[in-house]
Design a protein that fits this description.
It contains 22 helices and 17 strands. The protein has helices at 8-37, 43-51, 85-91, 106-136, 170-184, 186-192, 210-221, 230-236, 241-255, 266-269, 280-295, 316-319, 335-346, 357-363, 369-386, 393-405, 416-435, 471-492, 500-515, 546-573, 575-588, 593-601; strands at residues 38-40, 55-60, 64-69, 74-78, 95-96, 141-146, 151-156, 199-203, 225-229, 258-263, 302-308, 324-329, 442-446, 457-460, 529-531, 540-542, 590-592. The strands form four sheets. A seven-stranded mixed beta sheet has the order 6-7-9-10-11-8-12. It has a five-stranded mixed beta sheet with strand order 1-4-3-2-5. Strands 14-13-17 form a three-stranded antiparallel beta sheet. The protein binds adenosine-5'-diphosphate (ADP) and zinc ion (ZN). Residues 166-169, 206-212, 307, 341, 344, 369-370, 373 line the site of adenosine-5'-diphosphate (ADP).
């Protein structure tokens, strides 16, 4: 991974080159030079030159004699057992020297004895530092100090994520392509006087690829990527949020053009209202963020991306024009998007020939990108467990259930009677769904208990994307939810706790029909509820008088009662089929939609 903050790397590189040059020079060039200057001769020549009085300087070393002639040429020869040598040289007028030939130039010796060790030390230090910070930063991020505040900013490598790695989300990508283009050639925009939005808010449920998209923008534009989580401003460094923001922006401006990504911005950007006392630390941080965003010009090349799944909780000051003025929705993927995401992640694993991604995508309706990535990985893990070389269709189907409902419980704790009740319950759902023309057929029914606590479930498959649901469809859905309880009642004459989740879902739908979808005769198109948490489960809060609330409750009860009765009628009319199917499921524990339909139509 290529770190964005790179100056350390070139430094190391130069040290390396420097060392290499010195060593090369020392090992090859210097001896060559010395050899060229000092000529080796035999002892006879030395004696002859001595008698010819042609010796200028001489040095008798441990294993050789080095000498020069009157013309300044240097020679060397081996040592001989020659006791009279010194006397002869003296009479020949030779000067005795101790450093006749400098083996090395003085500069080089200084280099070797001083600079080299120093360079080595610094280089080593750098290496150790780098190792250390790499560890502290978790592998691919680097922590570095930020001046006085001592706050840490994580600079992550953009790790080469490109738009092509983010599947689906075409609208978001299209929106962000403009930012990439701007970072590539800002002049085009400046020329016409247009300025990029300073801040772009990515809004959507968790795990839909917001972080990925931000990284992909940095990756596509090939600019540094600063990443920090909103909660880090407040939680980790109490009292330092504001100065951290200041430092972050200082850094960013130095590194411009660059991308600053603030994850979970709602952690600092919450509305500054109504709580007495408030959170001073958080407010200061937010104020600093606002100030900084106002402080720099639109065209400095710093683009701030922020992600949140609670856009409605953000302070209006943050979302006004000039700050985070562009909002890019990153929604849960649709059928096509799911298929693409599965394919993108399946590139990393070995996939068997029978895998039908479109079928898998259809089954995993409502799954986020992160869940789909998880499904692919679970399928690969399951293939390994089976001892297979590749993940097959069955692995994918099982992994969807694992991700949705948890692992199979190995030692079933159900008694026979309980198992029978669960079988009736699930067949009840499926049968009611199948008998209502508008309901989607079932894909699979199972009564194998899961670690999540589900004792069994019916997997319904919708054939495509539903953007709209008619009133009848919602009613049928509610009837399907009540079908489980109705079947229990019909089969064993009493009811169990198994329907708790169904009751919740049915009530939620019925309430929404009346308070939000305007599907009640009495209230018509009046909004009686507002959704507060669109991307996190969609909690709603009532906005009506107490009397109206009572009336809503009454209508919800009536609506569900009506659908329960409808389900009951369907099941009573098909009691024989219900019994046969439940018996079959009881024996097989898992049946496919096909088997179900075969028995139903036989
Ligand atoms: P968010 O920031 O929206 O919570 P992330 O960007 O962190 O979600 O996504 C988490 C993981 O889910 C990613 O690492 C990726 O593996 C997977 N993922 C989510 N959306 C997509 C997508 N559209 N395409 C491919 N992978 C995705
Ligand atoms: Zn149920």
């Amino acid at each position: 991974m290529n770190e964005v903050k790179t100056p350390k790397k070139p430094m190391m590189f130069y040290y390396g080159i420097f060392l290499a040059v010195i060593i090369l020079f020392n090992a090859i060039v210097m001896p060559l030079l010395n050899n060229m200057r000092v000529k080796e001769v035999d002892y006879g020549t030395f004696i002859r030159m001595t008698t010819e009085l042609n010796i200028d300087e001489v040095e008798i070393q441990d294993n050789q004699i080095v000498f020069s002639d009157k013309n300044g040429n240097y020679y060397k020869t081996g040592l001989m057992d020659d006791p009279a040598l010194t006397q002869r040289l003296y009479t020949a007028g030779a000067k005795f020297s101790t450093e006749i030939v400098q083996e090395m130039s003085p500069i080089l010796s200084i280099l070797l004895s001083w600079i080299l060790p120093m360079a080595l030390m610094v280089g080593l230090g750098q290496l150790v530092m780098k190792k250390f910070t790499d560890k502290a930063g978790g592998g691919n991020s680097m922590m570095f100090n930020m001046g006085k505040s001592n706050a840490k900013i994580y600079v992550k490598s953009s790790s080469g994520i490109k738009f092509s790695d983010v599947a689906g989300e075409d609208e978001a990508k299209e929106n962000l392509t403009e930012v990439v283009d701007y970072l590539h050639n800002p002049d085009k925009y400046k020329a016409i006087g247009a300025s990029m939005p300073k801040g772009i808010l990515l809004v959507g449920p968790p795990g839909t690829g917001k972080t990925m998209l931000a990284k992909a923008v940095a990756g596509e534009a090939n600019v540094p990527f600063f990443s920090i989580s909103g909660s880090e401003f407040v939680e980790m460094f109490v009292g330092m949020g504001a100065s951290k923001v200041r430092d972050l922006f200082k850094q960013a401006k130095e590194k411009a053009p660059c991308i600053v990504f603030i994850d979970e911005i709602d952690a600092i950007g919450k509305k500054r209202d109504n709580h007495i006392g408030g959170n001073d630390e958080r407010e200061q941080t937010l104020n600093q963020l606002l100030t900084e965003m106002d402080g720099f010009e639109g065209n400095t090349g710093v683009i701030i991306l922020a992600a949140t799944n609670r856009p409605e909780s953000l302070d209006p000051a943050l979302t006004r024009p000039g700050r985070f003025d562009r909002r890019v929705p990153v929604e849960l993927p649709d059928l096509k998007g799911r298929e693409e995401i599965l394919k993108v992640h399946a590139r990393k694993i070995c996939v068997g020939p029978n895998v039908d991604f479109s079928a898998v995508a259809r089954m995993a309706s409502g799954a986020s990108g992160a869940e789909l990535a998880n499904i692919v990985n679970e399928a690969a893990l399951r293939a390994v467990r089976r001892g297979s070389r590749a993940a097959m269709q069955a692995d994918f189907e099982e992994s969807i259930e694992v991700v949705i409902a948890g692992y199979q419980k190995k030692n079933s704790l159900l008694t026979d009677k309980e198992k029978m009740i669960v079988a009736y319950h699930e067949i009840g759902h499926a049968l009611v769904a199948a008998m209502q023309t508008n309901s989607a057929p079932v894909q699979k029914i199972t009564i194998v208990p899961r670690t999540s606590g589900a004792l069994g479930y019916t997997m319904q498959v919708d054939e495509g994307n539903h953007y709209l649901m008619s009133k009848e469809e919602i009613e049928n859905k509610i009837a399907t939810y009540t079908g489980g309880r109705a079947a229990e009642q019909l089969a064993v004459g009493s009811v169990s706790t198994g329907a708790a989740n169904d009751i919740e879902q049915a009530t939620r739908l019925a309430r929404a029909m009346i308070t939000r979808y305007g599907m009640s005769d009495e209230f018509g198109m009046v909004a009686l509820e507002t959704v507060t948490n669109q991307y996190l489960g969609g909690d709603a809060s009532l906005a009506c008088s107490a009397e109206t609330q009572t009336e809503i409750d009454r209508q919800v009860v009536a609506l569900i009662k009506k659908q329960y009765d409808k389900a009951m009628t369907i099941l009573t009319e098909n009691k024989q089929k219900l019994d046969r199917l439940a018996q079959y499921l009881y024996e097989k524990e898992t049946i496919t939609g096909e088997e179900f339909m075969n028995i139903l139509n036989s």
